[in-house]
Each structure stands twice: as C-alpha cells, then as structure tokens.
C-alpha cells in the first residue's frame, strides 16, 4: 500500500514538473547579427550598388534601424556603407539592404582590376549595426567580416 501511494505521489509530482516546464514557452535567444556583401555592382556613373545581406541568428524577430560599416577592398579604404533601413528580419532568417555609395579611388581601381582580370578580391566590413529584438531595448552590435568577392559570369561589372 505504501509503495502504491509513493508511486501515485511520484506520478503527480512528475506531471506537475512537466506542466511547469511547458508554461515557460520557447527560449528567447538574442544572438549577434551578421552582415556580408551579397553583390557589388559597379554603376555607369562610377558609384557602387552593394546588396548587403543582414543575417538574424536570434530566435526572435529583430528590427534593423541603422547600419554603419567601413568597407575595405584589399588594402584600400572604399568608404562607408551607411543606411537606416528600418528592416524587420524574422528569427533565424536574412534579408538584403541595397546601399549605393561613391567609393574611394584606390578601391575603385582594385575592383576594376579584379573585374578585368576575372579574379576575386578580398574585402572587410567593420563597424556597427543597431537592432531592436522583439519586446526588448535597442542594441548596438559590432560587426567584423572578412570575405571575398568574385566576378559574376555573364554579368559585367558585378561581383558576388
């Protein structure tokens, strides 16, 4: 009889613990976002149109309000990718912001040379992105990304 009572009490306690665990809901994790150049297009007027891919690794939606990233092509400063996109990105998703700017001469020459030779060029993004996680305060995230762009076959003036 005692064993039966103990078993019944243990079963009720286990049910209560499981119900309490379910009540907490999904985990709300805010992770640092990432940014990278998805495509760089050299326009006829010499400016660059950059498609900047913003990646939200958080388990909650984030609203991206400000982007301020210094771009280096090889060893040359290209300029700043600055925008105020007011872009909401779903959890664990990404979206693209287009930023058009006039690059500095040394970076222009490096990209023109890479396009003419059909070779890739290294780039670095460094700066900050301001984002607001759902139901939280705005935060500033530091971004540093090193990668490369290569000429897109059949698309003159485009690097990916």
Automatic annotation (TrEMBL):
It comes from the Bacteria. Residues 134-160 are annotated as: Disordered. Residues 1-29 form the signal peptide. The keyword Signal applies. Residues 134-145 have a biased composition (Basic and acidic residues). Keywords: Signal. This is Late embryogenesis abundant protein. The lineage of its organism: Bacteria, Pseudomonadati, Pseudomonadota, Gammaproteobacteria, Lysobacterales.
């Amino acid at each position: 009889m005692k064993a039966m009572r103990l078993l019944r009490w243990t079963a009720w306690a286990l049910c209560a613990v499981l119900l309490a665990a379910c009540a907490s809901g999904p985990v709300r994790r805010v992770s640092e976002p990432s940014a990278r150049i998805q495509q760089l297009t050299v326009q006829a007027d010499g400016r660059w149109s950059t498609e900047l891919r913003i990646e939200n690794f958080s388990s909650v939606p984030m609203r991206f309000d400000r982007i301020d990233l210094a771009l280096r092509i090889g060893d040359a400063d290209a300029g700043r990718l600055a925008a105020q996109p007011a872009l909401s990105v779903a959890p664990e998703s990404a979206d693209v912001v287009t930023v058009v700017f006039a690059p500095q001469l040394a970076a222009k020459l490096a990209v023109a040379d890479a396009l003419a030779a059909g070779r890739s060029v290294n780039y670095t993004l460094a700066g900050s992105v301001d984002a607001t996680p759902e139901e939280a305060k705005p935060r500033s995230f530091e971004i540093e990304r090193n990668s490369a762009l290569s000429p897109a076959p059949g698309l003159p003036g485009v690097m990916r």
